[in-house]
Design brief:
The complex is a heterodimer of chains A (617) and B (216).
Chain A lengths: L2 H23 L17 H8 L9 E6 L5 E7 L3 E7 L13 H7 L11 E5 L2 E11 L3 E6 L4 E6 L20 E5 L4 E2 L10 H4 E10 L6 E9 L3 E7 L7 E7 L8 H4 L5 E8 H9 L4 E3 L2 E4 L8 E7 L2 E6 L5 E6 L5 E5 H9 L3 E5 L2 E4 L1 H4 E5 L5 E6 L4 E6 L4 E6 L5 E6 L4 E6 L11 E6 L15 E7 L6 E8 L6 E5 L27 E5 L2 E9 L2 E3 L2 E4 L4 E8 L8 E5 L4 E5 L4 E7 L4 E6 L12 E6 L1
Parallel strand pairs in A: 11-16, 34-37, 36-42
Antiparallel strand pairs in A: 1-2, 1-32, 2-3, 4-5, 5-6, 6-7, 8-10, 9-10, 10-11, 12-13, 13-14, 14-17, 15-16, 18-19, 19-20, 20-23, 21-22, 24-25, 25-26, 26-27, 28-29, 29-30, 30-31, 33-34, 34-35, 37-40, 38-39, 38-41, 41-42
Chain B lengths: L1 H12 L4 H16 L6 E7 L2 E9 L4 E3 L4 H11 L13 H22 L2 H31 L18 E5 L2 E7 L1 H22 L14
Antiparallel strand pairs in B: 1-2, 1-5, 2-3, 4-5
Helix pairs in contact in B: 2-4, 2-6, 4-5, 5-6
Chain lengths: 617, 216
């Protein structure tokens, strides 16, 4: 080979190498994904931190909202195991919810709800483990008793208020849970053209009084508000106790294509409500009665509501553990704003207003803000750790920013997979956050799991926040739609495992097999039934077509986990009765013939024999 | 022979010493204590019952563990094999045992105060007899429960003798049966009575025993 040839060959090889190198320069993944996906996770450390050995118990409960499934999902942390589902707004055959007389009555005509923001009851701003409240878009709020993890009351749909999104945030001593309008409409509801939206449509903020001993909820008062979309809220605590804060968007009062029309102003508002002043106004009779509700009109009763300008279309508003700062996150910008509660009070005293909306004063932004923290794009919601640490979810950036109250310094960012909505830290919205676990409630999981078809689950990612850098520990996949969750230390909840016999005061309860049987009163037939391993007594009963039949089933077991079911075929009846519980179902025996009933909840070796017949003549 | 009987009579009529009387008082205290503790315990473990189902037997009642729930659970389970319910009503012993124990306690107290060997021997014999009878009765009860099984029971098992002392595997259950403090107290009573008797025997005067008539 001569010299020219050699040169040609070496040049050709050099080109080839260059081409090869160039082809390697185009990454197949973004930088953050290369060398591992998402947050760097030391698998072994993460495994140890989340492993809860068989038979061992988790450290925390997480109550996650089920969104439009209408339920609440209970998880154990740090294992992220799904422990149980609490049916709230939707029938749930697994526990017979929505099939027996009481739960059917509680659900009313609605068999669906869009549950959003769980709120654990509090004492002095700390979770006390007694009740869990959760709102729902059809103007309702529910109370779950954490003694038995059962829904005990559903209040609403309440009058005037439409689209109860900004709810159910409780005050520091569970004096109130709150409700607020997302979809303003005429108050009282009547036909008014959408062209009169800006003036004739109204928003509502409502205080739901909670009876301190029983937890019974009642609608105490409402405040007539401008027709904004009220989004989220948080109660003031310690320094700011007595106040309630709600974010609002569409302060443009626009209609139509809201994604454009409601995104025109650079600032919207946080509504600050002095709820003690509202209470006082009601006591002094300063209200109008609309739709049977005591409604305060801020135009006529000043000093109750103020508007704080906040960055574009804010979503979350979160009060710091000491109550001194109110963190408002404009979801269409790159900063989150820390408002100083003291400065808000001073501005109110000095009437440092820049205008008003339907008679409600608007405070001057510069006078009340302490800082704009450059957390990243699309800040939504903030949770807290001890020592002034704050964690803000960033929907657009798909990340969590860790920053410090006071210094306003952003120290860490953890990518989330993907598009995080809310986030929940262990006791992270109380006066004393624990600072060990943080869960990102992501809207998209994008196939980080075995494929289950197009209807993909959401994802909840557990992070360790004990060190300076946040560390991803675990991916869990949650049912739609974890809008918000709260994480409570397990030992704060004292749940029973059976209903004690002595506490069963049900008028149709029977405990002795001798007392089980059928009584007839005209066309009303009452069947008092006993469920105990492994017989449903009576084992058969006769009725006449057209009879109104009530079956009252008492599970006389007092043993843990000995649940019994009562499924009546072809009649769409399905009860599950816990040990010591009595449930009733009332129906008209329309179809004649023979229909089997049986125990649906596997109970014993002779569970398959636990059956009987209803004969309809 | 005549001489032996005379010696025996003299011994029986002998007063007992202070240490022996204190032992009898201690025995009385132990008898009182039996009312506050169970005599026997049956504990059953199965995979589904890792905490165990517990049954304490007192001289006058059955007490289930877990606030009485365990005895109900045992009955629910036993109904599958056709065993009779374990309920106080079917234990006639519970009606007379506490009284007999009380009467024996009074007799021990009488021996302590009256202070003759004969009273001590009487009460010791009665106590040993009562103890032996109670054990037999308990065993017989267990035997009947394990053998009087309903022929219509859902699950047919061969008749069996539940363990009286120690452990046994019965179907999916590990069953343990052991005496509890009240039985140990009963044993202690018998031991104290015998000890008092022997102490008196060892401490009898080495010379001629005084005859009863001599005591005036």
């Amino acid at each position: 080979m001569d010299r020219t040839n050699r040169v040609a060959w070496s040049r050709a090889s050099a080109l080839l190498v260059l081409a090869l190198v160039a082809s390697q320069c185009t990454p197949s993944q973004p930088a953050s994904r290369r060398g591992g996906s998402g947050v760097q996770s030391d698998a072994a450390v993460a495994a140890l931190k989340t492993y809860v050995a068989p038979g061992d118990l988790d450290e925390y409960y997480m109550f996650s909202s089920g969104g439009h499934s209408g339920q609440i999902y209970v998880y154990g942390l740090p294992s992220m195991r799904h422990l149980s589902t609490i049916p709230v707004y939707t029938p749930y055959p697994a526990t017979g919810y929505g099939f027996d007389d009481d739960s059917k009555k509680m659900l009313g005509d609605l068999t669906w709800g869009d549950a959003h923001h769980p709120a654990l009851s509090e004492t002095k701003g700390d979770y006390d483990g007694r009740w869990l409240f959760i709102n729902e878009m059809n103007g309702r709020i529910a109370r779950i008793d954490l003694r038995d993890f059962k829904t005990k009351q559903i209040l609403g749909p309440v009058p005037n208020l439409h689209g109860n999104h900004a709810s159910s945030f409780v005050t520091p001593n569970t004096e109130y849970a709150m409700m607020a309008t997302r979809f303003s409409r005429p108050v009282p509801n009547r036909v008014v053209g959408i062209d009169k939206y800006a003036t004739e449509y109204k928003g509502i903020i409502a205080g739901v009084k909670i009876e301190p001993a029983s937890g019974e909820m009642s609608l105490a008062w409402q405040i007539l508000m401008p027709p904004f979309d009220y989004d989220l809220g948080d109660a003031g605590k310690l320094a700011s106790d007595g106040w309630m804060f709600f974010t609002s968007y569409n302060t443009e009062r626009a209609t139509g294509k809201l994604e454009v029309t409601a995104s025109q102003r650079d600032q919207d508002y946080i509504a600050a409500v002095d709820w003690r002043a509202a209470e006082k106004a009601i006591a002094e009779g300063k209200f109008d009665t609309i739709g049977g509700v005591k409604v305060i009109d801020p135009k006529k009763v000043p000093g109750i509501v103020y508007l704080l300008p906040c960055g574009k279309s804010p979503h979350g508003v979160d009060v710091s553990p000491d109550g001194k700062w109110i963190i408002g996150s404009g979801k269409l910008q790159g900063v989150t704003t820390a408002f100083n509660f003291e400065k808000i009070q001073t501005a109110i005293r000095n009437k440092d207003f820049i205008g008003e909306e339907d008679g409600i004063p608007v405070l001057k932004y510069e006078s009340i803000k302490d800082a704009e923290v450059a957390v990243g794009l699309g800040p939504l919601h903030t949770q807290f750790g001890p020592d002034g640490w704050a964690y803000t979810s960033l929907f657009v950036d798909s990340a969590i920013a860790k920053w410090k109250l006071g210094t306003w310094e952003v120290v860490d960012k953890a990518p989330m997979s993907y598009s995080i909505g809310h986030l929940a830290a262990a006791e992270g919205d109380t006066v004393s956050p624990d600072g060990n676990y943080l869960v990102g409630l992501n809207k998209l999981s994008h196939g980080r799991h075995l494929s289950v078809g197009p209807s993909q689950p959401e994802s909840s990612q557990l992070l360790d926040i004990t060190e300076e850098k946040m560390k991803l520990l675990y991916d869990a996949f949650t049912e739609p739609e974890p809008h918000y969750a709260q994480i409570i230390k397990a030992d704060k909840i004292k749940a029973i495992e059976v209903y004690p016999k002595e506490e069963n005061k049900h008028p149709m309860a029977v405990w002795d097999l001798k007392d089980a049987g059928v009584t007839r009163n005209g066309k009303n037939v009452l069947v008092k039934m006993i469920a105990v391993r492994s017989t449903l007594t009576p084992t058969s009963f006769e009725v006449t077509a057209g009879d109104q039949v009530t079956v009252a089933v008492t599970n006389i077991e007092q043993t843990t986990d000995e649940l019994h079911g009562f499924g009546l075929l072809d009649y769409n009846i399905n009860l599950v009765i816990d040990p010591g519980e009595t449930k009733t179902v009332t129906f008209t025996a329309k179809k004649s013939g023979v229909f089997a009933y049986y125990c649906t909840n596997f109970c014993s070796a002779l569970h398959q024999e636990m059956q009987g017949y209803m004969i309809v003549k | 022979m005549q001489a032996f009987l005379q010696r025996a009579n003299r011994f029986l009529d002998m007063p007992i010493g202070l240490p022996a009387r204190i032992m009898l008082l201690a025995a009385t205290a132990l008898i009182v204590a039996t009312y506050f503790f169970p005599l026997w315990n049956l504990t059953m473990f199965a995979p589904q019952y890792p905490e165990g189902l517990r049954l304490d037997i007192y001289s006058y009642t059955l007490v289930g563990g877990n606030n009485g729930q365990d005895v109900k659970e045992i009955n629910v389970l036993n109904h599958y094999i056709g065993m009779q319910d374990l309920v106080n009503e079917s234990f006639t012993e519970f009606q007379w045992m506490p009284f007999v124990i009380g009467a024996l306690g009074l007799l021990v107290l009488r021996a302590a105060v009256h202070g003759t060997v004969v009273a001590l021997v009487d009460v010791t014999m009665l106590f040993v007899y009562f103890g032996a009878f109670s054990l037999w009765s308990f065993g017989y009860k267990l035997y009947r429960y394990g053998h009087d099984l309903s022929p219509e029971a859902a699950v047919q098992v061969p008749p069996f003798m539940p363990p009286m002392f120690g452990g046994a595997q019965i179907a999916n259950f590990e069953v343990y049966s052991y005496p509890r403090p009240a039985t140990y107290a009963m044993a202690g009573v018998i031991a104290l009575l015998l000890a008092a008797l022997f102490l008196t025997w060892w401490q009898r005067p080495t010379g001629e025993l005084p005859v009863a008539a001599d005591r005036g």
